Write the structure tokens for this entry.
Amino acid sequence: MKTAFTRTPTYKDVPTHYCPGCGHGIAHRLLAETIDELDIHERTIGIAPVGCAVLEYDYIDVDMVEVAHGRAPAVATGMKRTNPDKIIFSYQGDGDLASIGAGEILHAGHRGEQITVIFINNAVYGMTGGQMAPTTMINQVTATTPKGRTSAGQGYPLQVSELLATLPGTIYIERCALSSPAEIRKTKKAIKHAFELQIEGSPGMSLVEVLSPCPTYWRMSPVDAMKWIGEEMVKVFPLGRLKG
């Protein structure tokens, strides 16, 4: 029998706590593979804030720091400035990065902090019960928008990548997805490029936004959640490189 997949050393062989069909496991694997392929395991420090990915250190075998909700860019800034030889990344969901952490990510990008940000966008608060997030789309049903989000009542979804791409301190911004094998390969390529820029010493912040499924709070099957990304989410959050 031909071996189709071999677990990379940095990706721990442990049971998952994520819901069936969640995209975090895929994103973790891409991140771990990138770290090993670039041979930066001993140099890498990750930042995991509050959210579904708060237990990322259970899966990624590198030094990790758990921080308060939304504060990953601030902690990553301090880590990089005091350890310029290290490769520093944050891994953040949309409820974390685009809500309570919006000011943190905006100013880290504006200052041009030399960090790598992996931004998981599933358009909902996953850890706390499926409430509306800043990225929730118009007409999307959540625990706090049972009739769907409306622009008049709750405003429009926040397009973080477009916002950050306007800042002179950001050097690379790309939006990817986990909706198909082809898109997953593109996502890995983007994550790898973002890390390579930091390894090369390029001045500025890199961010890769990843559209990821949340079948539990989208109230869909895992298969339908993947289809929904490709058919609906990309209309609001178009895929592609925005900067760099």
